[in-house]
Every structure is written in C-alpha cells, then in structure tokens.
Amino acid sequence: MNPLPKEIEEEIQSFSPEVEAEIDRHIAKYPVKRSAILPIMFIVQRERGYLDAAGIAYIARRLDLTITDVWEVATFYTMINLKPVGKYHIQVCRTLSCQLLGAEKIVEHISKRLGIKPGETTPDGRFTLSWVECLGSCGTAPAMQIGFDYYENLTPERVDEILDSLKE
Ligand code: FES
C-alpha cells in the first residue's frame, strides 16, 4: 500500500460497512484494481458531496495508486466535482452542436436569472452553474443536465419552466 503524507493520512475517512462493501464489489469486477477508479469516484463523490483531498487519498489507498494517479483522472472528467456544488448542479453543454444552437444564450439567461457565472454557486447553496463537454444529446441541442436528469431542445422559456419546477 502506498504511503501517504501524514496530514492526508489523518484526513482519510472510511465509509459505512455497506459503502465499503459496494466499493469492494466494484473492485472485484476488474482484473486490475485501478480499473474501478470511475465507479469508486462516483461513490466517494456521492458520500462526501464532492471529491476533496481526503476523498482522493482514500481512493488512492483503496486502489493502490498514487494521489497523482487519482488527480489525473479526477481533473479530466467534468462530472467529478473537485469543490462543493449546490443542491442543483446545472451543467450546460458547450460542445459544437449546443454552441451552434444557442448554448451561450442559455447560460447567459441562467446567469442573469440566478446571479452566478459558470463555476459559481448561489449564496444559498441551491444552484451551481457549470459548462461541460458533450452530453451525448447533440441531436436535441442545446442540452443541459441537472443532477442525473437531462433537459433538451432548450430555450430561455423552457429553462425558466425547468428552474421553476425544481423543489426548494
Ligand atoms: S454537443 Fe451538446 S450534447 Fe453533444
């Protein structure tokens, strides 16, 4: 097992037996431990709210990787949150189809309505706005994702309906 810096070692938390067992099941699916890195990142993010330094260190420990190995993957994927996000994480696609069909206008509209720019969270912690890469909904662009839900063929009016429908 790789040694970790003392301050990181102190921060590492283990999860409930159920979560540890869930992680074990993912590790057991692969011939090499490191292949389980993405599902385990999602579990750690779900449990801790985002992937912080202690979460990164925990994954490194569990998969016999270095902290750098885990950071390399964590910083590649926009679905891995490296800082806390709001209750509703609005992720607007900025890739070609969505750009051509008005993603900028959608983000401007959301920014104006919520008073935040991409990368920011509202002071009440309710919304975070982010740009992300292709969501795989290019045929129904522009598209955004809030949590695990997809919203497509967006217009400013449709965005207002969606935001109005979200519970407090
Ligand atoms: S380009 Fe936006 S979903 Fe693919």
TrEMBL record:
**Gene3D superfamilies reported for this sequence:** Glutaredoxin, NADH-quinone oxidoreductase subunit E
Instruction: Provide this UniProt record's keywords sorted from A to Z.
Output: 2Fe-2S, Iron, Iron-sulfur, Metal-binding, NAD, Oxidoreductase, Translocase
| Keyword tRNA-binding applies | no
Name of protein = NADH dehydrogenase subunit E
Give the GO molecular function terms. Answer: 2 iron, 2 sulfur cluster binding; active transmembrane transporter activity; inorganic cation transmembrane transporter activity; metal ion binding; monoatomic cation transmembrane transporter activity; NADH dehydrogenase activity
Q: Which GO terms describe its biological process?
A: inorganic cation transmembrane transport
Say which domain of life the source belongs to.
Bacteria
